[in-house]
Write a structure and sequence with these properties.
alpha+beta, 5-stranded antiparallel β-sheet, binds adenosine-5'-diphosphate
Length: about 450
């Protein structure tokens, strides 16, 4: 329980550290992105300045504002409507844009950066005053009038903004009188850079790769740490289980031995040859039990050397089954074919079949049926040992062949075992080129299937 909360604490701490690391990385990347963007935009501005601020562009701009002033005067005298005024200014703006675009295109060769940007200048407000009457001819809230460069929508990088005030006395040719006016316009110049985000991210590639690699390696490191912790925890559990199981297994023969020794000390018994003989047989049985246990534990850490012999496997199987006595269970045989000679390690095979028969007995209720079936399929000799016992859940079926693994329910029901029988059986079968598998349903029973190459 304590270990479980330690694992939980470790996971939570790792997640917090990871979240912190990701936030810091995000903050750094965002700042670097902004800084790189600013530097890049300033750099582009510097590169296009000689064209944008060239005398050619200035003269187109001057021409435009000259026309605008004239239209303002016309508006004040002719009583053009604001809508008509704007329409005419837009029309003038369009023709100026046409001129400026031609000029910009002529500079493509000397300033290749111009191919990657779209530049525009626009008026955002026009205010005109004559005889103390203010006339706002273009409001800030209205659609600005472009007069230089190209059209574009979306994010624009500002190059400059400004406003021009002029107060002039002028001769109006059309009415031949002096007009005093105050004129003001606000303007802005901005640009759009194609594939801007991509360009900036490309400049940051090294940093982005390093950041992702750093976070990934931290995640992998945490995951690896977590896995080895779980593995260690499992090993510790297996060790404790094994210590419990082996002491449980040894308890009966050891207490029987001390009982036999006590009895041997009693004169009445040791002088009686018949009782003495019974005690010696019992002594041999308990000794065999302890021997089997130690053998199993020793075998669990060594490899089997197989000795393949040719023999009739049907005769062999019938022999094991007739030796196998079950007082409580009803053993049902379906042995096929009549005879079959194959190469196998018959010593190991006998131990495997016995293991499976003992398990079928151990894990199924008395008087239930144990069925042993054999047949040939796809050049393999198959032995099936089927019981109607407690069964094994699907998740446990994958683990029961592991070393020392016991289904916890088995422990709860106090069925003795070390969790080595199936592990050793699998090892023995593999060493002779065969295999074991299991089909089972919890509560309904299990079928263990042995496959031996029929050669
Ligand atoms: P042991 O029987 O000593 O515990 P095994 O390696 O023979 O060890 O078996 C591993 C586990 O597989 C057992 O603890 C038991 O839970 C399960 N098992 C094996 N055979 C059967 C069976 N015939 N029916 C149900 N469960 C079985």
């Amino acid at each position: 329980m304590k270990q479980q909360s330690q694992v939980k604490l470790l996971i939570i701490s790792c997640l917090i550290i990871l979240a912190g690391l990701i936030s810091i990385q995000y903050y750094l990347i965002r700042n670097t992105y902004q800084l790189t963007s600013e530097t890049y935009v300033n750099d582009v501005k510097k590169q296009i300045a000689p064209v944008v601020e060239s005398p050619e562009m200035d003269s187109i701009e001057e021409l435009f504002f000259d026309r605008v002033k004239k239209l303002c005067l016309k508006k004040s005298i002719d009583s053009l409507s604001v809508g008509q005024f704007q329409k005419e200014v837009r029309w003038v703006g369009d023709s100026m844009r046409y001129l400026s675009r031609n000029y910009l295109q002529s500079q493509f060769e000397d300033y290749p950066i111009l191919r990657e940007i779209r530049f525009r200048s626009r008026v955002t407000q026009i205010v005109f005053e004559t005889d103390s009457v203010y006339d706002t001819l273009l409001k800030f809230t209205e659609i600005p009038i472009d007069y230089l460069g190209q059209d574009f929508k979306g994010k624009a990088f500002n190059i400059n903004t400004g406003n021009v005030h002029s107060s002039v006395d002028t001769e109006n040719d059309s009415i031949n009188q002096k007009v005093k006016y105050f004129y003001k316009h606000n303007q802005s110049a901005d640009m759009d850079i194609s594939n801007f985000q991509f360009k900036i991210l490309k400049k940051m590639t090294g940093m982005l790769i390093a950041a992702v690699a750093l976070i990934l390696s931290v995640i992998i490191l945490f995951f690896w740490m977590y896995r080895s912790l779980i593995k260690q925890k499992k090993i510790a559990e297996v060790k404790t289980d094994f210590a419990n199981n082996i002491s449980h297994e040894l308890k009966t023969p050891v207490s029987s031995l001390s009982l036999i020794i006590k009895s041997l000390k009693i004169e009445e018994i040791n002088q009686n040859p018949q009782k003495l003989n019974e005690l010696i047989i019992s002594l041999e049985r308990q000794n065999k039990r302890i021997q089997n246990l130690t053998e199993r534990v020793l075998e669990s850490s060594m490899e089997y050397k197989t000795e393949l012999q040719k023999a009739d496997i049907i005769q062999f199987l019938k022999g094991i089954l007739s030796d196998f006595k079950s007082e409580k269970h009803n053993i049902n045989l379906e042995i096929e074919p009549e005879t079959l000679t194959i190469r196998a390690d018959y010593y190991l095979l006998e131990r495997v079949v016995q293991n499976l028969l003992e398990n079928a007995q151990k894990y199924s209720p008395g008087s239930s049926e144990i069925k042993v079936k054999s047949y040939v399929s796809n050049s393999e000799f198959i032995i099936e040992i089927q019981d109607k016992g407690i069964g094994i859940s699907t998740t446990e079926q994958q683990k029961i062949f592991d070393k020392f693994y016991r289904v916890s329910e088995g422990n709860r029901h106090n069925i003795k075992g070390l969790g080595l029988g199936l592990y050793l059986s699998m090892k023995m079968m593999k060493s002779m080129g065969g295999n074991i598998s299991v089909k089972s349903k919890l509560g309904e029973g299990s079928t263990f299937i042995l496959k031996i190459p029929a050669v």
